Amino acid sequence: MKILIPVDGSAGANRAVEYVIRSVAWLKETPQVCLLNVQWKLASGNVKLFINQETINDYYREQGASALAEARAKLDAAGMAYSYHISIGAPAEAIVQYAQEQQVDQIMMSAHGQDKLSNLLLGSVASKVTQLASVPVLLIK
Q1: Which residue ranges does UniProt annotate as crossing the membrane (predicted)?
Q2: What secondary structure letter does DSSP report for 52?
Q3: Element (H, E) at 87
Q4: Nearest Cα to 91, choosing from 14, 48, 43, 36?
């Protein structure tokens, strides 16, 4: 089983990672875990006139690595193998696209992310992923 866990550095995203770690005991086989962080695209319009692309890419890498750090540490401590990737774009669409590219069996994600406004109801990214995804989506509170 291949599981995609979108990670934004929030406590909710880390709970999804912890859930996968706890679930290994009752799964028939150890899942293939893919961590994904999506960075909003910054370079639009005049931004590229003042900041070069290499600096922007470094920023994406730094922010993505920071958001993935705790999830990676939890999987390392549990001795679970995983892959990780940092995408740039609109989060819901990037998650669904990556899930299709990697042919994952399930997306497991937090119902609420870092954005306080989206936490008023079901997280807006989680809601959109459930609408767009062609694979099961398990939402973790």
Answers
A1: none
A2: -
A3: strand 82-88
A4: 36
Return the half-sphere exposure (C-beta side, CA atoms, 13 A cut-off) of residue 81. Answer: 5
Which 3-state string (H, E, C) describes 3-36? EEEECCCCHHHHHHHHHHHHHHHHCCCCCEEEEE
Order the strands of the 32-39 sheet from edge to edge: 82-88, 32-39, 2-6, 106-110, 137-140
Residue type, 41: K
> CA 16 → CA 3, 41, 45, 60, distances in Å?
11, 25, 36, 23
Residue 122 has pLDDT above 80, yes or no: no
Amino acid at 95: I
Q: Point out the least confidently predicted range of 3-12, 49-58, 82-91.
A: 49-58
CA atoms within 13 A on the CB side of 120: 2
Q: Which domains does the chain have, with CATH numbers?
A: 2-140 (3.40.50.620)
